[in-house]
Here is the input.
Amino acid sequence: MDINYELYKVFYQVASSLSFSEASKKLFISQSAVSQSVKTLERKLGQPLFIRSTKKVQLSQAGQTLLKHVEPAIHLLEKGETQLLDANALGLGQLHIGASDTICRYFLIPYLKQFHQQFPDVPIKVTNATSIGCVDLLTQGKADLIITNYPNSRLNDMFIRKIVANFQDVFIANPAYLDLQLEEFSLADIKNYPLLMLERKSATSEFLHNLFLQHQLELIPEVELNSNDFLMDLARIGLGIAFVPDYCLSKDDELRPLKMKETIPKRQMAAAVNPGLLLSPAAEEFLKLLPQLNADAQ
Here is the structure.
């Protein structure tokens, strides 16, 4: 179907603001031109995209479906334009990274510092999201690269440029508060204690739920949060056993890693890019600073 890109552009602005007048301001065209463009697109697609009333505009079911596809396409085009303009004006353009709060705090900081020292004029933008959410940033063109926990159900292996770290997840608790009499714990034993873990929309939660399923156990957490640091704080005051990456622990922490009977597979941190997009020079330079590890390294 031959549909002018400008029609989708108008649709996106109306769908984003749910206002024909706001869309006309952003597009620098008249409101009647906006309305006519939407009607033309609706006629070509054969169904209404908006539900109009005297007081408000809403997306129809068809409009909601179309927006899910148009929005990332618009972002990708805008990103390409910005990347070309930035490259001409600044040399390297902007560096935009997506990563979880934990990865930012415990892994990224020294590399961001090193990059900033080498390229002080390049703007750096970091967007926080879960490792699963970061994949959406990447596919929608909202980030140049992401640093994510791996395995990740949303991440295609073709996106991975580097394995940058290997780590071990651990169950931790404060023995001053919890009666931890066993020298070795099984996953079944862990179920007898309040379990503190990340929310379901995270790669870590996926990993732990799959681990329990592999041992034919049901995982019922006591607390689900979006911060490993907060989970550790709760474990310190004796509210339960937390499940966190080992790199979050300091040597002088009162939290004790539990010795497990089952082998918990190691995981990785991966630097990933969208192979369908041209990578910005800034992102290429940042990738050079990151280590290159073997995923099977112990």
The mean pLDDT is 89. The two ends are 53 Å apart (CA to CA). Residues 61-90 form the longest helix (30 residues).
